[in-house]
Amino acid sequence: MTNLDDAPALVSLTLSFRPLATQIGPLRTLLSDLCKPHVADPDGLSRLLLAAHELLENIVKYSVGEVAEFHLRLEARASGLLVRMRTKNRAAPERMADARWRLDALAAARDPIAHYDELIRESAGRRDVSGLGLARIPAETEMALYYATEQDWLILTAEGRASERVSG
Amino acid sequence: MTTLQLGAVGGEGFQITPTLVDFNLRLLFSGSGDMNATSVVNEYLKLVHEEAQRLTLAQVSCDFKQLTFMNSSCFKSFVVWIDTVKNSEIRYQIAFLTNPNLPWQRRSLEALRRLATNLVTIETIA
User: Cβ contacts (< 8 Å) between A47 and chain B: which residues?
Assistant: First the structure.
């Protein structure tokens, strides 16, 4: 995992909140407003916001308990603009098992796009939950997705290059 | 005379508006396709398929020019719809019309095109 904490951040945001569906749109707007001045590439900003949205929805859909956390850090490096997002939420045992299964399969996949395509084909015949949100992050945003657990807490980290260039 | 039995749906933040020209049904999506829109999209695409079968349409075009975002649950509704068309006896083409200023659209929709390359096309509109 890249150590982003060594350099000063262009944006560093930490939220601790009780997640609600109605908060996701305004949060995405806030993240866009905070990051847009620094991200020269519109496609990079679009990828960053897509990953943020799916991570936030994942919290809203599957967290249990009162509090969840969301952290975003945007940082300029010689190689470009790096972003790291991390969520932390408590999860019910069945959800935790499902998330671990999906994320382990994702980590084992050589090609995230081929893996995503396979999940899409499998999901076509199912009418229940999407199951595509987390796999969409590496497939469509080119970000790496990691997870860790602490008892019943699920911690997801998405990180990658938001842009080759930094605005300003 | 062919009459469209499909109305506009949605509310604040998300809408779908249909128009029928010859045998091409055009669906104008606007707003943000997030958690609040998921059930609307899911149910609407079922009605679109019924209507396309009833009218033996040649094509359904999804105009995303004003669609600012689509979450994975709404995306899944399109997966189910495309799969339904793919497995139907009476098929029709599905065209996605994208906004070049919204880069997520092209990337997301490419995955739908790969699901049924003979049915799905993606076009960029100014």
Answer: 103-104, 107
Span B6-34, pLDDT tens digits: 999 998 899 999 999 988 999 999 999 99
The C-alpha atoms of residue A134 and residue A106 are separated, in whole angstroms, by 9
Residue B82 lies in a domain: yes
Query: Across the interface, do B80 and A124 touch by the CB < 8 Å criterion?
Result: yes
CB B107 within 8 A of CB A164: no
Q: How many residues does chain B have?
A: 126
Q: Which residues of B touch A120 (CB under 8 A)?
A: 79, 111, 115
Domain annotation covers residue B2: no
Supply φ then ψ for residue A36, to 5 degrees.
Answer: -55, -40
Q: State both tokens at B77.
A: 């509704």
Q: Is residue A3 part of a domain?
A: no
Measured CA to CA, the distance from residue A166 to residue B1 in angstroms comes to 57
CATH classification of the domain holding A109? 3.30.565.10
Q: Confirm whether A39 is domain-assigned.
A: yes
- Tell me how many degrees the CA angle A131-A135-A141 measures, rounded to the nearest 5: 140
Predicted interface score ipTM higher than 0.85: yes
Supply the range of the domain harboring residue A84: 11-163
With the CA atoms of A18, A19, A20 and A25 taken in that order, what torsion angle do they form, in degrees rounded to the nearest 10? 130
Task: Measure A103 CA to nearest chain B CA, in Å.
Answer: 16
Give the 3-state secondary structure of residue B30: strand
3-state secondary structure of A56: helix
Q: Could you report the per-residue pLDDT of A71-116, keeping only the tens digit for each? A: 999 999 888 899 999 999 999 999 999 999 999 999 999 999 999 9
B76/A125 touch (CB, cutoff 8 Å), yes or no: no
CATH number of the CATH domain containing B35? 3.30.750.24
Q: A121 contacts in B (CB within 8 Å)? A: 115
Domain that holds residue B83: 9-124
